[in-house]
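Entry type: protein chain
Record version: 2
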Amino acid sequence: MFRINHRCINCGTCWQFDSDHFAPEGERACVHAQPVGQEATEQALLALQACPVAAIETDRSLRQTTPVDGFPALIKEHSEGTIYYCGWASRRSFGACSWLITRPSGNVMVDVPRWSAPLARRIQALGGLRFIVLPHRDDVADHERWARTFACDRWIHAADADAAPQAEQLITGGDAVAIAEGLQLIPTPGHTEGSLCALLGDARSVLFSGDHLWWNPEHAVVVASERYCWWDFATQLASVERLLDLDVALLLPGHGRRHAFAPGAWRTALEQTLRWNRRHHES
């Protein structure tokens, strides 16, 4: 019913969104289980829609039943806002996840998907956009089209601003900046010089980590990757250390798996990451 073609770039979009049916396998994703029932089939169809390179195929008649309002998909209700996954991943961002936070004071998009008129209509129905946060230079995708459509400001760190020179709001230096009540941007240089994390809430927070950190379910660890560090890994580890005292309940990365943390588990996980990386980085 569903199959993966030669266009797959192994970005993880399908299996991060729908691990019930898709999985990594060598150089590309695979269909490890065909969906059974309407709900499972709709989930697989949304993974097909989210794929940035049209690498998932199915019969045309089945594809025509894709839910028109599937994205943004609800992820979590939080006291500071409701969080959605935007889908519609962009090849220009190698399939990075884009997140929407709906808030009474104005909605915020973290990272951007490829342009999608159906998604834009859904976001408009949810109240439009007040801000777009660009956590680093790699995943800016179609930010110009989204910003123009919603007449909203874009936030980026000055060190990565050449990737979005039209951005209206620049962060400079290393201090965290509150861009709205309950929402702050934390400079975390390393992956790129201007990498940022966005933090929603002060207690049991949600951390939008860009490519700074992600979860590895196979080893049950938070990953800070030297292999995928484009600027300075020692600085990246120092940036990880800066996040130790946060009370993170949910990690939402640009790439890699998301993960929920029990109270106190965040610090333990980061300490493990720092020990492992410093031992191997210094050896």
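Comment: The mean pLDDT is 96.
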